[in-house]
Amino acid sequence: MTERIVIVGGGSGGTITANRLSEELESEIEAGKIEITVVSANPNHLYKPLYLYIPLGEAELEDTRRPLVDLVDHRVTLVYKRVTEIDTDGKSLAMDDGSELDYDYLVVGTGAIPQPEETPGLGEDEPGHHFYGPDASENLRETLANFDEGHLVLSVIGTPHVCPAAPVEFPMIVEEWFRERGVREDIEITYTYPIQRLHGVRPTAEWMVPRFEERDIETKTFFNVENVEDGTIETLEGKELDFDLMIGIPEFTASPIIEEAGLGEEWMEVDRNTLESEHAEDVWGIGDVTNLPTSKAGSVAHYASGTLVSRIASEVRDQVPTATFHGKTICFIEAGTEEGTFIEFAYDREPVVRDENRFLHWSKLGYNEAYWLTARGVM
Amino acid sequence: MSETDIQADETVDAIGSACPGPLMDLIGKIKDVDDGTVVELLTGDEGSKNDVPEWVEEADHELLDIIDDGEYYSIYVKKT
Predict the structure, then answer these.
(1) Region of residue A244 (phi > 0: left; psi between -120 and 50: alpha; otherwise: beta)
(2) A195 contact residues in B (CB cutoff 8 A)
(3) Fewer CB near the terminus (10 Å): N or C of chain A?
(4) Within a domain: B55
(5) Is the peptide bond before A160 cis (omega within 30 degrees of 0)?
(6) pLDDT tens digit string along A227-248?
(7) Which of B61, B54, B65 is nearest to A238 (CA)?
(8) Residue in A136, A155, A128, A126 with CA at minimum distance from that of residue A236
(9) Is the pLDDT reported for residue A173 higher than 70?
(10) Does residue B34 belong to any structural domain of this protein?
């Protein structure tokens, strides 16, 4: 009898896991004991970190996406449908076309979905911009290209949000970009954050302070955006801040199918070391959809997939799974358009943020090109 | 270990939530409830003992009590 591993989601977690599983279980697949299926509503895989560069004219939408069929191992079956229901008792998925798909082992990698509409005044046709999507990042590019004087405010609204370095990087990159365009003197930049320091990760917050001061980027903390309208941001704390261009880091949520399936109230609840669902047998979570106590970053999905693949392979082979995940996370941080740094941390290890340099900036740009090898499970 | 007579209307369980999780979880709840509601935040994060009172003062709400339950803290906040 053939057992089926189904992976829901064609993002970083789903794609890397599918490719590594097909390598690991090569002999079982060839013997007809295992088949692997990826279900994705989108036939394209998206490399979302590039959305940061689109508003500055340094990346195009076509750079952010590649067809899944070009990235996923030929031994994996691709199904381009939206999963509407997960029945963990019956071990079955319902699809948007009315069909069903049974599984023996299930990996959920449905990601974190931006919810700009949760903040009045943020999103499409609203005064507040963001860059977490194709249309949003292109709209912001057009607005930025015509912005040569006034007050730009970048507000972190929701935490956790995906790509935790992006709001750190954007003010420093755009500040240098304005200088290069000769308009910096006429533009004021303010960065706001919900809690009492500049970032949730304390060493990152400490690294930011002198760099934002050097660049004359104003900061405001304890700033929880409630409403954006008529050129003014209003906060839960009763503050007001006027702006000419507002960019928000929106709230993010998991797909509603997670709560409906009983897999978690807010995010998919998994064991932080084994990645197994806290609520269902033979179900694992990968990437941004999970409640893992670390950043929602592609590197987490990348490193966690190694644990996941090993544990599923052990289950398939009736061995005792022993691989564990300890929260390894790596994020590059750009400090403008010429230099960058990176942070590495884990559940029990705070990051050390080193001084920025040109080599790490070029490493980040190089990795943006090489990412597709990560998606393929090669590096 | 200590006790309190405060009755919470809502409880936010942020035990195990990494920093800045507990404070952001509390802020999210405060956004949704009516004035006068008492919210109990359960947190295992030592930093919450300082972070939460600072934010409560900034946002002009009322800190009712912080109870050390041994493995976690119960922080009671009234939305005003």
Answers:
(1) alpha
(2) 20, 23-24, 51, 55
(3) N
(4) yes
(5) yes
(6) 999 899 999 999 999 999 999 9
(7) B61
(8) A155
(9) yes
(10) yes
Q: Are A146 and A244 in contact (CB under 8 A)?
A: no
By the CB < 8 Å criterion, does A348 face chain B?
A: no
Which helix H or strand E contains A155, and what residues bound it? strand A150-156
Name the domain count of chain B.
1
pLDDT digits (tens, 9 = 90+) for A134-149: 999 999 999 999 999 9
Over the range A300-311, which residues count as b (16 or more CB within 10 Å of their CB) and which as e?
bbbbbbbbbbbb
Task: Answer for the pair A267, B14: CB distance below 8 angstroms, yes or no.
Answer: no
Q: Which of A115, A197, A222 to mutate to test the interface with B (most CBs of B within 10 A)?
A: A222
CA angle A132, A71, A138 (to 5 degrees): 25
CATH class of A3-112+254-316: alpha beta
Q: Measured between CB atoms, does A238 come within 8 Å of chain B?
A: yes
Nearest chain B CA: its distance from A224 CA (Å): 8
Residues A183-210, mean pLDDT to the nearest whole number: 94
What's B48's domain CATH number?
3.30.110.40
* CA neighbours closer than 13 Å in the CB half-sphere of residue A284: 29
Q: Which residue has the higher pLDDT, B14 or A18?
A: A18
Give start-end residues of each CATH 3.50.50.60 domain in chain A.
3-112+254-316, 115-251
- Is the domain covering A115-251 a CATH 3.50.50.60 domain? yes
Classify residue B67: in a domain, yes or no. yes
Task: Return the structure tokens found at A119.
Answer: 């903040």
* Catalytic (active site) residue B4: no
- Write down the residue that tokens 């970083």 correspond to: A12
Residue B47 in domain: yes
